[in-house]
User: Fold this.
Amino acid sequence: MRKRLHLYIICLGGDKMQLKKNEIKIIQLLLASDNYISSYEIANSTGISRRRVRDEMKIVKDILATLHLNLLSKPSQGYYIEGKSSQDLTELQSIINKNERDDDSLIPSLPDERSNYILGRLINSREFIKLETLADELLVSRATIANDLVSIKNEFKKYVIDYFIDDYLHGRTPNPCIACNRYVKWEALLQRSLSIGADYIATGHYARIDKLPNGRYAIRRSATLAKDQTYALYNLTQEQLEHTLMPVGNYSKDQIREMAEKIGLQVANKQDICFVPDGDYASFIEENADAPIRQGNFVTPDGKILGKHKGIIHYTVGQRKGLGLALGYPAFVLEIRPETDEVVIGTYEESLTHTLRANELNFMSVEDITEPIRVFAKIRYNHKGAWCTVEKTGEDEITCTFDEPIRAVTPGQAVVLYDGEYVLGGGTIL
Assistant:
């Protein structure tokens, strides 16, 4: 059996014993049974494999022996505590109760805890991880891990993949990395870290986190704007920020690569969308959508038909290349109308606007805004940014009015607001 992560300890005084969660479960089953209990019953009740039960019973036997209790085992019948008196039961239950109150085991046992652990392992691994490896680490059966993975896949599907597909089907351009950061990566890593007694998680983002004089935590631009990832982090909560460190943000990308090379650390080449390996997101949507993708018309703003297109999922607001139109002038996607399957085409001048609206707000450096303020805003990751006035126009809505017209305001993308070096907040463009 692999080396245990957490051993039981019996102090000299004899009144303090620390048990693992599986040991507690098994002993409780034995205490409650007036007859022999089979390994099959124990496996079903605890969620661990029958092989693991046999390994655990060896440890349980030693634990019971320290209390002068004898664990009997019979083929085809199972296990039974011999000669347990009411005093023995009281003493043993007291130990169990204390362990359940003060348990600091590093091995998660509840399904949500295991899911957080597994997701954290997957996020941080550069290699495939076998089910058997995770089963051994968590002291459960291979089947239990398989069920946990189904739950994880459903979680990722709900918050990232379904959102990604739905946005494209409704004429928007989603940003799955922002959703994944907020609802998958940070939740898994943070909850796992807190569950084992850690205070922080550390990430490799080119950004910094500061606690401001007003008591709130905020993302701060990296030391060099040549590599700054604050745009993709605007949606993190105060709790997540409070328990996160971002040391890479104090260095340039070249400095980090140099450090990595010196210690022999490989720098991974990352694809744009992790769940679309070949980058063909349109084919991915077609394969996973509930209904076939319909063709439609390219139209002018006043409704004149310019030609046929192959489906709205193939286009995004601001797009110029790949339209397949010969109009005699540079053409841009101005709007996508999912209700009519129309892609609106216009000139560069028509692609410019002074205003945008956004919802699904998350404020960071401030709790909220109550009056119009001037901020610096980015409307996509590689946007150089522009000055605007932002005001609250609804309970969950802001309107940004830019000093100069900006191009390709894309529904579904994020607008991120900056107050100096700090992220003030942001939202999803309507």
